[in-house]
Amino acid sequence: MALQEPVLRSVGLGFGWALGPRYADVRGELTEILAAATDAADNWAWDVFDGDPSILVWNEDRRLHVIVQPRGLDIVSEHPDIDAVVAVASEVLAGCLDALNLKVVTRVSSSAKWTLAAGAAADVEKALEDWLLSPRLRTTLGPIGGRPDDLILSGRFEADNGVVTMFKTEPVTDEQAVGGGFFISDMEASEFPPASLLVDLERQHTDEFDSADGTKRSEGVLQQVLSQGSKLLATVGARDDLPDD
Amino acid sequence: MTYQMIDAIRSVKKSDRAVFKSEARAWKANNSPMSAVSRSAGRTKIGAAGRQHAGARQSLSGFSRGLKSGPAGTSLRIPTGLRSIGPVAGGAAAWPSAQGNSSLVDRARSALVATGAQAEPAKPPMGAPRRDASLYEAAESLRQATIAPESAAIGWAASMLQRAAHAEADRRPRHAAVALSTWDAIQCTDRPFGSQARRKVLWDASRLLLSPFISTDDEMALLDRMDDADLERVPPFEDTYAGHVLEDLRGDSVR
Fold it and tell me: Which of A164, A188, B89, B180 sits in a 20 to 30 Å window from B127, CA-based?
């Protein structure tokens, strides 16, 4: 059975900067900036993520999350609302750089996640094999057990101009989609189909940008990710139409 | 953002655990403009509202923990969405009546009272409706209309179907398509519930809306059955803009 049309589940923007030594002193100010931009007065926390002290602010109704760390800022919308992440980025980035007394960001990134629904997990695995892997996958892997129970395909593309694109796809059930670490929001299994192919695409551009240029560049990268991701996903189930390499 | 980081963030949001939480609360109590306003009014905003908020969250998490673990011999797990819309106080009858469940509700209520939160009047603890509530409403209103096809019920069903189609268009495109097709059928057909065959098709449409997955075959089969039952999904030509224009032209030529 073919997979159904892709459904956009999440979009995100990210910014990296040189270590902000003032971070510890301006955590309160940063929290105020984030809370105002996300309209989330009560939903905030200070914690440590990935070994870095972090400020987390979230608006559960809008499924909007903003995380600031000494080395960067991440904005994620799982509604998803593209305009909202861009608006929040333009509002928050300038405030964060100003509070940290930094002039430029050194990295911008954008990401998106899609799901393509199917009725059963076996259909998704078969569709992934037909799309990007070999129909002989099961036969080839026969000596070690046939078709793997967990199949993840990831790729990384590095260009000379500092642009890195990361692609990852894997079959998930509705329960795995909710609890598998793919989404920050408090979602329910009923929001997802019984099985789906989850596709994650992220692009990073390492260069120096001021606040305005950084926001503009990240928005451009997000549009690239969305359009190129849609183009890629349109090839699901169309393998026979593609020319051989 | 790594999956490990996403897991860590979810953990912080759910458990209200934060390394610097007390430090953050102290900072906010002293520096937040809101707290300054409240202090000037004679009480500390963060101290009062913050405690109430924290107490409600604490009692809620305790409540959900109790439900997940359940009393001895039971394994009761209320879906997250149901927890979010279920009444905490005064609504015990709405909860599933598993063994020992009422005591859990009593515990939650007493926890609310103990933490200073108001047990009455009953309010949803988080206020957020289920994300798929519109689908359930649309399916139920359509089911009711097939049972008792009165004009009010039909109008309500049409309204709910249109709302569900808009709400689910991005998240569940197939459900939205079925809702929209059914709405079209109700709007564009003269007496859409006028025969047993039509009511059966619309009843099945309501069941399909509640299905977790709508395959292409199921969707096409429903459309075929609508056609077989003469449920029109486009308005009569006379009611379209082109039909009106043609009608006017005919009128002109007669004149």
Answer: B180
pLDDT tens, B88-140?
333 333 333 333 344 444 444 444 444 444 444 444 444 445 667 889 999 99
- ipTM attached to this prediction: 0.81
The one-letter amino acid code at B186 reads: I
pLDDT band with cut points at 50, 70 and 90 for residue A242: low
Read off the pLDDT of each residue in B157-181 and give the average, rounded to a whole number. Answer: 93
Question: pLDDT tens digits for A171-205?
Answer: 999 999 998 889 998 888 888 999 999 999 999 99
The DSSP bridge pattern shows strands A195-209 and A163-173 to be: antiparallel
For residue A193, give the nearest of B172, B194, B28 by alpha carbon.
B172
| Closest CB to B7 among A28, A58, A181 | A181
* Domain ranges for chain A: 7-233
Residues B126-157 as b or e (16 or more Cβ within 10 Å = b): beeebbbebbebbbebbbbbbeebeeebbebb
CA dihedral A219, A225, A231, A235 (to 10 degrees): -160
Closest among B217, B176, B223, B190 to B204, alpha carbons compared: B223
Q: Which chain B residues are closer than 8 Å to A188 by Cβ?
A: 79-81, 130-132
Selected for mutation to probe chain A from B4, B11, B12 (highest A CB count within 10 Å) is B12
- Among partner residues A49, A117, A188, which is closest to B80 by beta-carbon distance? A188
Q: Quickly list DSSP for B36-101.
A: HHHHHTTS-HIIIIIHHHHHHHHHHHHHHHHHHH-STT------HHHHHHS-SSS-GGGS---TTH
Res B53: pLDDT: 41
- B170/A60 touch (CB, cutoff 8 Å), yes or no: no
Any idea what DSSP says for residue A239? G
Q: Is 0.80 topped by the overall pTM?
A: no
